[in-house]
């Protein structure tokens, strides 16, 4: 099951679910809109409202196709419950992650062939991307936030589609290391995120529906990491 409920219904933050399996502090539901994380993207956190009260979900631990929700307290849940994703936190992560796609596309266009060697988004509204870039002045990289903000200001649509994984493997630039889980679905489809006219690549993360939903993007620091790598740190003010 690599087509997540959070991909099918990105605006679904609250819904009923039935406990499918449980242990103290851990629970598996029949359905969940929580993003499980993976590949550099944080999973969702949130809450479960159950017969005995409300318990926080600290994170999600994928185990094969099962997504175990890790609870903040050692309660053992059963029956029907109400799940609630932390929408504000999801939004912060989606903004930073969508902005990462834009930054990635701008770097790829200005310095052709540049590879992403690492990426991380934090839930405090900061993140970083590492690029295999040796010849570019740090000040030039630092000024790229203006180009990212231009795409945010233009309000460009962000769409998800599915393509054949075999076809995707032969399309240059479609599968880059920014990509977040999941891998191809059981029927061989790969999820593609397209920011119209800006970026198109395979990705399983959570994104905005339109770049205009992002707050302004600021590059806070550019560091050299070894001989070849540059680390670009950024934040939402
Ligand atoms: Zn993505």
**Termini, distance in Å?**
36 Å
| Proportion of residues in extended strands | 35-45%
Query: How many separate helices?
Result: 5
Q: Which series of helices and strands comes N to C?
A: HEEEEEEHEEHHEHEEEE
Count of extended strands: 13
Helix content: 10-25%
Low-confidence stretches: none
Q: What multimeric state do the chains show?
A: single chain
At a glance:
The chain contains 5 helices and 13 strands.
Folded structure, characterized:
Helix 2 (87-110) packs across helix 4. Helix content is 20%, strand content 37%. The strands form 3 sheets. A 6-stranded antiparallel β-barrel has the order 1-2-5-4-3-6. A 4-stranded antiparallel β-sheet has the order 7-8-13-12. The mean pLDDT is 90. By secondary structure, it is of the alpha+beta class. A hairpin with a 2-residue loop joins strand 1 (14-23) and strand 2 (26-29). It has 5 helices and 13 strands. Zinc ion is lined by residues 97, 101, 180, 193, 203, 205, 207.
Top keywords for this entry?
single chain; alpha+beta; four-stranded antiparallel β-sheet; 13 strands; globular; binds zinc ion
Would you spell out the secondary-structure blueprint of this structure?
Layout lengths: L4 H4 L5 E10 L2 E4 L16 E5 L2 E11 L2 E6 L8 E6 L1 H24 L5 E6 L4 E7 L5 H5 L2 H10 L3 E7 H5 L19 E7 L3 E4 L15 E8 L3 E7 L2
Antiparallel strand pairs: 1-2, 1-6, 2-5, 3-4, 3-6, 4-5, 7-8, 8-13, 9-10, 10-11, 12-13
Helix pairs in contact: 2-4
The chain binds zinc ion.
Zinc ion binds next to helix 2.
């Amino acid at each position: 099951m690599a087509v997540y409920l959070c991909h099918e219904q990105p605006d679904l933050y609250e819904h009923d679910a039935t406990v499918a399996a449980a242990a103290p502090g851990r629970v598996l539901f029949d359905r969940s809109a929580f993003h499980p994380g993976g590949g550099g993207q944080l999973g969702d956190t949130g809450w479960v409202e159950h017969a005995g009260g409300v318990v926080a979900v600290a994170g999600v631990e994928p185990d094969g196709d099962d997504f175990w929700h890790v609870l903040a307290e050692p309660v053992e849940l059963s029956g029907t419950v109400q799940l609630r994703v932390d929408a504000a936190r999801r939004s912060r992560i989606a903004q930073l992650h969508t902005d990462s796609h834009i930054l990635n596309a701008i770097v790829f266009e200005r310095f052709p062939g540049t590879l992403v060697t690492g990426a991380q988004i934090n839930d405090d509204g900061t993140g970083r991307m590492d690029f295999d870039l040796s010849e570019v002045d740090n000040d030039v990289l630092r000024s790229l936030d203006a180009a990212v903000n231009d795409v945010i200001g233009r309000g460009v649509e962000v769409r998800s589609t599915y393509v054949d994984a075999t076809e995707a493997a032969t399309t240059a630039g479609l599968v880059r290391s920014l990509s977040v889980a999941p891998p191809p679905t059981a029927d061989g489809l790969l999820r593609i995120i397209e920011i119209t006219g800006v970026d198109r690549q395979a990705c399983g993360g959570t994104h905005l529906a339109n770049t205009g939903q992002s707050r302004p993007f600021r590059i806070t620091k550019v560091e050299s990491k070894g001989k070849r790598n540059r680390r670009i740190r950024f934040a939402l003010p």
